[in-house]
Design brief:
The longest helix is centred in the last third of the chain and has 20 residues. This protein has 3 domains: about 100 residues, Uridine Diphospho-n-acetylenolpyruvylglucosamine Reductase, domain 2 (2-Layer Sandwich); about 130 residues, 2-Layer Sandwich (Uridine Diphospho-n-acetylenolpyruvylglucosamine Reductase, domain 3); about 210 residues, Vanillyl-alcohol Oxidase, Chain A, domain 3, CATH 3.40.462.10. The radius of gyration is 22 Å and the shape is globular. Helix content is about 35%, strand content about 20%. An 8-stranded antiparallel β-sheet has the order 15-12-14-13-17-18-16-19. The protein has a 5-stranded antiparallel β-sheet with strand order 5-6-10-8-9. It has a 4-stranded mixed β-sheet with strand order 1-2-4-3. The chain is of the alpha+beta class. It contains 15 helices and 19 strands. The structure holds flavin-adenine dinucleotide. Flavin-adenine dinucleotide binds next to strand 3, helix 5 and strand 10.
Length: about 475
């Protein structure tokens, strides 16, 4: 019955119950257990989404919003049987770019690749912010997931770039939050208002389907320079990183195990650390209106590096130009977001991480402790730490790429479980949280927070149709 009704809404060709497609949508690259949906529906308009959710609400059919399923957290795998996937890829329009207030209004299927190409062609003075993720992934989904990108060291998580949004509630009503409530062409911000972006941000598709989002853009700086800091030991590395990040001059800083950098520069699997090599490399980006401004910023970084040399003389600052001369095209393409560099992470069919946001006091401890765990499980060392939002916190994770067989999946599960316990011990909060990680988090956090989440969910979604079981709710 429901399938017939859905076909009436979107047309037969945009509803699939085929075994092949249900299989594809039942899993992602992580170790999380697959679960097949009963069908996949691909709407093209807000009205179609409203009609679908009204039908789902009446028939108590479970819905999972999906765009490309590349979240690396199992977040689009249905948690309960008999769910329907709503794939929003067809809604891929950039509806408006406001040059003066610097924002873009986009549909959920718009990808980082679309955004970059569109802005370069039509608004070359403006830029968006890009992750080290495949360019075919959704901008709106990553903003909703509070992800991180190449302006996060300066401006914070991607949810902080959201000016407002439009969403269909689980009961089918269309709502807007942010200054766009006063009409079209007015999506300049989310204050001064009750900040209801929070009803959708971080909810992993449990509270409604976002149909439009207004995203902040930034002036494209005329001058950008990249450099790499090579450092030794976890505490000295994070100390120098903190001192530099506190200067508030960086657009971005990605601190990585050297083995991860070698991978990104094209060294073949399995990449190992060599004796005497630095332990970490941090890729930094600085920008300015003049070359002089950029050089001044780099000289501040250099001064800090010099100061750190009194403790560790082997620390080194190298310009990206020099690295590119040594390593060639791969190095050059890495800094041109969205880049090809993500491909080395998808070398195998398995990819996972325990990603967290973490207090600066724990950075050194987190890198050192996580490293021991990963080494014990004999995975390649791929630590990643990015100071966020002017250094108020950092994103921190150990990435694991793996061939997806039963033995590896079990090893990954045990390793990730230990990594998460260790991260939680250090006050870190997991992001893009798979259900197993949400369960562990919920054992430790204020129960009133979970009670509040449940109340909000119940009031927005009385029949619990939106992604039930997600976040263990
Ligand atoms: C190799 C690799 C590298 C990556 N690097 C980064 C990185 O550097 N930084 C980073 O932040 N991320 C990174 N990611 C993660 C990924 O790119 C993002 O999470 C992604 O952009 C999300 O887009 P998606 O299309 O895959 O969303 P999906 O996985 O399809 O959806 C994500 C979540 O959002 C919900 N959802 C989707 N659409 C809607 C909607 N319209 N309304 C409500 N809920 C919705 C879904 O139900 C799900 O819970 C990386 C991923 C890979 C594979």
């Amino acid at each position: 019955m429901i399938i017939k009704k859905l076909c009436k809404v979107v047309g037969d060709q945009y509803v699939s119950e085929s075994t092949g497609e249900r299989y594809i949508y039942s899993q992602d690259m992580t170790e999380n257990e697959p679960c097949q949906p009963i069908a996949i529906v691909m709407p093209e308009s807000v009205e179609e989404i409203q009609a679908i959710l009204k039908i789902a609400n009446e028939t108590k059919t479970r819905i999972v919003p999906f765009i490309t399923g590349q979240n690396v957290g199992g977040l689009t795998i249905p948690q309960v049987e008999e769910s329907i996937i709503i794939d929003l890829k067809r809604m891929d329009k950039i509806l408006q770019v406001d040059e003066e207030a610097m924002y873009a209004l986009v549909e959920p299927g718009v990808t980082f690749g679309h955004m970059r190409r569109y802005l370069d062609a039509h608004h070359p003075e403006l830029r968006y912010t890009y992750p080290l993720a495949p360019p075919y992934t959704s901008v709106v989904a990553n903003a909703l997931l509070q992800g991180l990108c190449d302006l996060s060291t300066r401006h914070g998580a991607m949810a902080d770039f959201v000016n407002g949004l439009e969403a269909v509630l689980p009961t089918g009503e269309l709502v807007r939050v942010g200054s766009g409530i006063l009409g079209e062409d007015n999506w300049f911000g989310r204050y001064p208002l009750p900040d209801l972006v929070g009803l959708f941000s971080g909810w992993q598709g449990m509270s409604g389907i976002v149909t439009k989002m207004a995203l902040q853009l930034f002036p494209k700086p005329p001058h950008i320079e990249h450099a790499a800091l090579f450092t030794f030991g976890e505490e000295p590395t994070t100390e120098i990183l903190k001192r530099i990040a506190r200067k508030q001059i960086l657009d971005d800083a990605d601190c990585m195990s050297l083995s991860l950098v070698k991978m990104l520069l094209g060294v073949d699997y399995p990449v190992e650390a060599l004796d005497g090599e630095p332990d970490y490399a941090t890729l930094i980006a600085v920008s300015g209106n003049t070359e002089r401004e950029v050089l001044e910023k780099l000289s501040v970084v250099e001064d800090e590096m010099e100061r750190a040399k009194s403790k560790e003389p082997r620390q080194l600052l190298v310009t990206w130009d020099a690295i590119s001369k040594l390593m060639g095209e791969q190095a050059r393409s890495w800094i041109d977001f969205p880049s090809d560099a993500f491909k080395i992470l998808t070398e195998f069919d398995g990819l996972t991480w325990v990603g967290t946001y973490i207090h600066p006091k724990a950075w050194g401890k987190a890198l050192a402790g996580g490293r021991k765990i990963v080494e014990r499980y004999e995975f390649e060392l791929m630590a990643f730490l990015k100071p966020m939002n002017g250094m108020h916190f950092a994103e921190f994770k150990f990435i694991i790429r793996f061939p997806k067989d039963i033995e590896n999946i079990e090893r990954v599960k045990r390793c990730n479980s230990e990594l998460l316990d260790f991260a939680l011990d250090n006050g870190a909060i997991p992001y893009k949280t798979p259900v197993w990680a949400a369960k562990k988090l919920q054992e430790r956090i204020d129960p009133q927070f979970i009670a509040l989440l449940r109340r909000i969910k119940r009031s927005l979604d009385p029949n619990n149709i939106m992604n039930p079981g997600r976040w263990n709710l």
